[in-house]
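Weekly sync, protein design subgroup
Attendees: M.S., D.O., the rotation student, P.L. (late)

Item 1: inverse folding check
M.S. brought a backbone from last month's batch and wanted to see whether the design step gives back something sensible before we order anything. D.O. pointed out we never logged the input encoding, so this time it goes straight into the notes. Structure tokens as presented (254 positions):
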């Protein structure tokens, strides 16, 4: 199955983040991990290689997945996510190491064996270098009712150079160099009413402004797992009686 997530506990209005005094580089504040831009990062001060980030959701929240992105590897020797009903961490009710951190594709995740429901979460990170750096993080539920669907049929993944090109009257080309942007187009077929409603709700929440987190079943590889924006609203086509298909057009969030 492909995993869709979008309701990020970290970006809810009720959520507060905190860490030990002195563990934050003032130029790279902790609140940057709540930002949608990948270039906005949190950094600890140089020499601080272990940080503990407290996530107070303000209320009990359901969590199925932890996901993380980076721009250039993770430089992490260990990462653990803990959950508890109170802000007390001697023996948390839930503790899970984040083992799948892929430096090649700058994406990592941990799927919990069952839904975990706590108000307080503690992310413990140990750097492999001289400081901790973190970018986009997701903590929250997966989209229900899509467990039987995948994106393995008829997909395309295109990486485009987004640089601006201008041509002078002499025919010379001038460039504003910008990064490559990946676009994923994929189809889901034979979807029933609960599945189409789940996708409609996801788009209603995100539109083209808020990102989704996606782990697609493509080539059994984490290569295409990423944070994406919808380019257009999913359109429905009837396959047969009360079953529909749609094509996703997604662009990589930077």
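Designed sequence read out in the meeting:
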């Amino acid at each position: 199955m492909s995993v869709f997530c979008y309701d990020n506990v970290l970006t809810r209005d009720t959520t507060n983040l905190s860490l030990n005094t002195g563990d934050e580089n003032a130029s790279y504040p902790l609140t940057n991990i709540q930002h949608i831009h990948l270039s906005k990062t949190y950094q600890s001060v140089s020499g601080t290689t272990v940080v503990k980030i407290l996530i107070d959701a303000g209320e009990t929240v359901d969590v199925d997945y932890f996901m993380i992105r980076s721009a250039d590897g993770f430089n992490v020797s260990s990462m653990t996510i803990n959950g508890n009903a109170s802000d007390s961490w001697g023996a948390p009710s839930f503790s899970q190491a984040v083992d799948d951190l892929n430096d090649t594709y700058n994406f990592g995740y941990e799927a919990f064996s069952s839904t975990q429901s706590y108000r307080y979460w503690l992310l413990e990170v140990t750097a492999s270098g001289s400081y901790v750096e973190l970018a986009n993080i997701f903590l929250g539920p997966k989209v229900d009712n899509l467990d039987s669907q995948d994106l393995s049929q008829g997909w395309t993944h295109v990486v485009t150079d987004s640089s601006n090109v201008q041509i002078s009257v002499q025919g010379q080309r001038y460039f504003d160099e910008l990064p490559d942007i990946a676009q994923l187009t994929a189809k889901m077929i034979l979807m029933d009413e609960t599945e189409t409603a789940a996708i409609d709700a996801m788009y209603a929440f995100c539109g083209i402004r808020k990102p989704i987190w996606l782990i697609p079943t493509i080539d059994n590889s984490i290569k295409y797992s990423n944070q994406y924006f919808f380019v257009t609203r999913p359109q429905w086509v009837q396959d047969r009686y009360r079953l529909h298909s749609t094509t996703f057009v997604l662009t990589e969030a930077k």
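Discussion: The chain has a mean pLDDT of 92. Residues 3-140 form a domain with the Jelly Rolls fold (CATH 2.60.120.260).
Action: P.L. to compare against the previous round before Friday.
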